[in-house]
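Example 3.2
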Amino acid sequence: MSILGSRVIRKEDPALLRGEGRYVANLDLDHPLYACFATSPFAHATFTHVNTDDALGLPGVRHVLCGGDLDAAPIAPAIPDRPECARPVLATERVRYVGEPFALVLAETPQAAFDGAELVYADFDPLQAVIDPEQSMEDLVALFPGSTNIFAKSPDRPNANLFADADVVVTERLINQRLAPCSLETRAMAAVPTPDGRLVVYSSTQSAHGLRRTLVRCLNIDESSIVVRAQDVGGGFGAKVTVYPEDVAIAAAARKLRRPITWHEDRTRSMLGLVHGRAQIQYLELGATKEGKLVGYRLRIVQDSGAYPAFGALLPTLTCLMAPGTYLIPNVETSYVSVATNTTPISAYRGAGRPEAAAAIERMMDRLAAELAMDPVELRLRNLIPKEDFPLTTPTGANYDVGDYSRALSTLCERGGYAQLRDEQRRRRASAAPLQLGVGIAVYVEVTNGGGSSEYGRVEVQDDGVIVAYSGTSPHGQGHATAWSMLVANELGVDLDQVHVITGDTDLVPRGVGTFGSRSLQTGGAAVSGAAHELSIRAKQVAAATLEASEADIRLNADGAFVHGSPSTTLDWPTLARRARELDQPLDVTLDFAPADATYPFGAHLAVVEVDVETGRVHLISLNAVDDAGRILNPLLAEGQLHGGIAQGVAQALLEEFQYGADGSPLTPNFADYSIISAAELPSFDLFHQETPTFMNPLGAKGIGESGTIGATPAVWNAVIDALAHLGIRHINLPMSPQQVWRAITTMPAAERA
């Protein structure tokens, strides 16, 4: 019986629960220097001199390095034709956001490094800052003198006939607010020079090979001279895919000084330096017939990219790709502009462009339902792409593989008690109860492993019978050691404990892409599973030669040994491994799995909220979710990913927003001001798995790491506005804080209330 599909407990957890995790901060290094960065207190300023004397006078401070002291090239921009926007390792002459590093302090203790960084200052000459991306488009304040603030822009070809067949067109301006990823472990890195001239880098990263590639380029060194080892990672959420100036500075300083250097930033520096997410302004138009048949959709995006063009400048391409969502819309028009502002750069944050797309179309579906006086579920059912239409290419060029959207929504409404919730809502409205009930629906589809990138896998049997699986993925909580062990055990008939999984070490794994974009199982898992399958074939050949039998007569027994004829004639894995080496047929198989395209998970979420119309307070009562990520390898791991994703989606809907003052000063630089979610604000989630296997990989699996985030935010958003619909309220921008909700209620003229 196959182990796949079973609720296998994570192999990773016992060590973590015993406090035996391998984090960068726990490394036992030989007399390291501790690093802390001096960062800009201004959003926009020029400077010509950095004063380091006071810092160097502190006991324990050994070095203060500025931009000219490091032999390192800047980090290339994500927009290739904007080389002038490359990100300096340490700022020289100009800073462009509060928190940008301009000096590196190295000391014998962490406290001395921190105190030293506080004493480094530059002769800053403040400049006018631009925070609003729509104002930045006017180029009145140039972040890069001589260049436009527009990092990227799509062709804008408006279709005058887009809504020619529409009886109703609804419009809206949505703000998908700026978020801070808030990983429990902040950024951390250590760089250790070795006697043979190499540099070993330990990092809290989501892509060990990606970090190595950037360091090789910025330091102008050979790949063979640097090793990157990803440690246990206390949260990544996409933000730790990015390679930061601090990473390059630590590596360059360690090479220069020939001493180990370790860095672990404090929370406030992390809130300002770790990339932010979302930050989109969306202008939307959705048209339909009076019967509710969609005819056209227009999406225009203004993307706040922050001070440098990181991946965030390209996020609108994913939003535009996924614009139609789960619906048959014959005419879809999208455009975007990505703009520089004097703020922390924007990059990938859990969902990376897809939550923004789902939020846009799902809010507009509710706006349209209200305009047509139609139930929002009925409107969706009339327009969902039918199961028999798959595979299909959408008007925006997405190649949807498989889907059964109507079943997901119908299952959700049945199991979530949708009809009963509407009855309760009508009762509360009739009695003018202060706690009004809101019911929010969101049906989503997303893209995982966008671009169809490949991944490395290798499986070998050692002489002691231990089976080692090597993967180019770089997990940070997903449970790859468990999942890859299950795949190997399924192919080779061994216990999970017999399988050892190695990831995130560029010395042991020659190539890899990493873990982000919900890509790992469908690429890295498929590679490991395929390698294990090929190894099983090779092992059977060796067993047949050893036992002088036909391959057809060789089988694996329940104990994971090869058997021929009588059960007494067996070969265990250690014996087989040694025999294979003697025959020059080592049990060692490498496979790079390259799918033809991405996959498109989907699902439906139902959120139920109570809104106190007297105070604006929102209480999330329940959240039901039907998620379809193809074939599920381990429901326990899948549900863990959904729990985390839903929590972050709810947090965006109700709590989180990173804010700046008009001068670019951060207003929410720590957890005292930036509201993150806790268990107290969350109910238990009711999750239902639907499985529609994809044909894009042999496992039939799609990604699931970001699905919860993508479905939860618009479901909760719709629920809160639904609770207030009888007051005439049609839209409130995120986050749905008590202040925002109360303001919407109290500013609605009594004459306009429904």
